Automatic annotation (TrEMBL):
<dbReference type="GO" id="GO:0000160">
    <property type="term" value="P:phosphorelay signal transduction system"/>
</dbReference>
<dbReference type="GO" id="GO:0003677">
    <property type="term" value="F:DNA binding"/>
</dbReference>
<dbReference type="InterPro" id="IPR001789">
    <property type="entry name" value="Sig_transdc_resp-reg_receiver"/>
</dbReference>
<dbReference type="Pfam" id="PF00072">
    <property type="entry name" value="Response_reg"/>
</dbReference>
<dbReference type="Pfam" id="PF00196">
    <property type="entry name" value="GerE"/>
</dbReference>
<feature type="domain" description="HTH luxR-type">
    <location>
        <begin position="157"/>
        <end position="222"/>
    </location>
</feature>
<dbReference type="InterPro" id="IPR016032">
    <property type="entry name" value="Sig_transdc_resp-reg_C-effctor"/>
</dbReference>
<feature type="modified residue" description="4-aspartylphosphate">
    <location>
        <position position="66"/>
    </location>
</feature>
<protein>
    <submittedName>
        <fullName>Regulatory protein, LuxR:Response regulator receiver</fullName>
    </submittedName>
</protein>
<feature type="domain" description="Response regulatory">
    <location>
        <begin position="15"/>
        <end position="130"/>
    </location>
</feature>
<keyword id="KW-0597">Phosphoprotein</keyword>
<dbReference type="InterPro" id="IPR039420">
    <property type="entry name" value="WalR-like"/>
</dbReference>
<dbReference type="InterPro" id="IPR000792">
    <property type="entry name" value="Tscrpt_reg_LuxR_C"/>
</dbReference>
<keyword id="KW-0804">Transcription</keyword>
<dbReference type="InterPro" id="IPR058245">
    <property type="entry name" value="NreC/VraR/RcsB-like_REC"/>
</dbReference>
<dbReference type="GO" id="GO:0006355">
    <property type="term" value="P:regulation of DNA-templated transcription"/>
</dbReference>
<keyword id="KW-0238">DNA-binding</keyword>
Length: 229
């Protein structure tokens, strides 16, 4: 198909699929997103099964999906991520409770934005997820960590002491906190390329394939101390 970007030498836009059962919401999102020169909406879906099928057809860079749409938001995330495509799923939802956050990550989602903060966070979230990073807005991150820290010492904690080096552990922790490679580099006084190298090495050691998995693993491993929440 010809909708994957013109071959004029410029960077191709981030291709988006909007999945929400409210047409008015989709129309508002399309207007917001297509006002950005680096974003392009290639398809819309009113429910989960349609979103999965359109993902197969268009292979968007990012699917922006409502968590409560017909067909099940979490099931839709699982099905899309199981397709083996480079598509990332960013959840846009009204829910802010902690019980919704971890399931999104465990289903394979790469980000979580509340609709109440979409006007300030959505554009950044889409670009972050498109780069292969994980995006959680600050409030969601704090809620997630607070809830998870209460569970990591129940016998399910993973000992990474002999698996990862100190630098690798630090990079994994910062990644789980939502820092970009540049931000982690600034904190650790390293170059972004070196941070990426440590992260890649850690993922290889842990048998992980993407950064969303790395975030989930770091949470299970208890790498985030109480001071981080």
């Amino acid at each position: 198909m010809s909708d994957r970007g013109a071959g004029d030498g410029r960077r191709q836009p981030i291709r988006l699929l909007l999945a929400d059962d409210h047409g008015v919401v989709r129309a508002g999102l399309r207007a917001l997103l297509e006002a950005q020169p680096d974003l392009r909406v290639v398809a819309e879906a009113p429910d989960g099964p349609t979103a999965v099928e359109l993902t197969r057809q268009h292979v968007p860079t990012v699917v922006v999906a409502d968590l409560s749409m017909p067909g099940g938001g979490l099931e839709t995330i699982r099905e899309i991520t199981s397709l083996g495509l480079p598509t990332r799923v960013l959840v846009l939802t009204v829910h802010a409770e902690e019980r919704y956050l971890l399931p999104v990550l465990e289903a394979g989602g790469s980000g979580y934005v509340r609709k109440s903060s979409a006007h300030t966070d959505l554009l950044d979230a889409i670009r972050t997820v498109a780069r292969g990073e994980v995006f959680l807005d600050p409030a969601a991150t704090k809620t997630l960590l607070r809830g998870y820290l209460g569970r990591v010492h129940t016998g399910d904690e993973i000992d990474l002491g002999e698996v990862l080096s100190e630098r690798e552990r630090a990079v994994v922790r910062l990644t789980a906190e939502g820092h970009t490679a540049q931000q982690a580099a600034d904190i650790l006084s390293l170059s972004p390329k070196t941070v990426e190298t440590y992260r890649h090495r850690a993922m290889q050691k842990l048998g992980l394939t993407n950064r969303a998995e790395l975030v989930r693993y770091a949470l299970r491993a208890g790498l985030l101390g109480a001071e981080d929440a």
